[in-house]
Design brief:
heterodimer, A: mainly beta, four-stranded antiparallel beta sheet, 11 strands, globular, B: mainly beta, six-stranded mixed beta sheet, five-stranded antiparallel beta sheet
Chain lengths: 112, 113
């Protein structure tokens, strides 16, 4: 059974640029959630996708957007990057929207 | 607004002794609580959970206690082992169908021989 995978592992971008992060869910899971973990903080919920539809969103601006594909993999897109967007971005999948979440290793984004 | 709080950023315990990690929450709508463990360069791993209808849940060396009136939960690890050294996150959610987890800032546990 393959766990949750994320790509890339690390990424460096310049302020104002756009970035796309990718996540492959654990086999059989149809729900994916994205979290941002800034340095010294706990993960903060960005949004969740269930069967390709957004199923809840945290307190993040519209420049954070997402997609879930028919194979349940997912993308997180961030436009107009700001320095404060530097963080570890975690993806988590679950069998159903309210079930236990399994996390990937994360993508470390640095904005300079 | 931090709805889940872990006020101790670090805890150091000798191998074989008990580790107690604490967590407080402010939202009375939370009805399910979880503990995650995180090693460097890995994602958080689910450890143990408790529903608000219970006050204790045990799994091997790990026990979680919930005090709803105090809005407080704690994770006990007995006996502590060096492999337990990691960051521990307390998390909470409300409703069985909603997936959003609210995390604390984490506590770095170090277990020394």
């Amino acid at each position: 059974e393959t766990g949750v995978t994320q790509s890339p592992t690390h990424l460096i971008k310049t302020r104002g640029q756009q970035v796309t992060l990718r996540c492959s869910s654990q086999s059989g899971h149809n729900t994916v959630s994205w979290y941002q973990q800034a340095l010294g903080q706990g993960p903060q919920f960005i949004f969740q996708y269930y069967r390709e539809e957004e199923n809840g969103r945290g307190n993040f601006p519209p420049r954070f957007s997402g997609l879930q594909f028919p194979n349940y993999s997912s993308e997180l897109n961030v436009n107009a990057l700001e320095l404060d967007d530097s963080a570890l971005y975690l993806c988590a999948s679950s069998l159903l929207a309210g079930d236990e979440q399994y996390f990937g290793p994360g993508t470390r984004l640095t904005v300079t | 607004d931090q709805q889940v709080k872990q006020n101790s950023p670090s805890l150091s315990v000798q191998e074989g002794r008990i580790s107690i990690l604490n967590c407080d929450y402010t939202n009375s709508m939370f009805d399910y609580f979880l503990w995650y463990k995180k090693y460097p360069a890995e994602g958080p791993t689910f450890l143990i959970s408790i529903s608000s209808i219970k006050d204790k849940n045990e799994d091997g060396r790990f026990t979680v206690f919930l005090n709803k009136s105090a809005k407080h939960l704690s994770l006990h690890i007995v006996p502590s082992q060096p492999g337990d050294s990691a960051v521990y996150f307390c998390a909470a959610k409300r409703g069985s169908t909603l997936g959003r987890l609210y995390f604390g800032r984490g506590t770095q546990l170090t277990v020394w021989p």
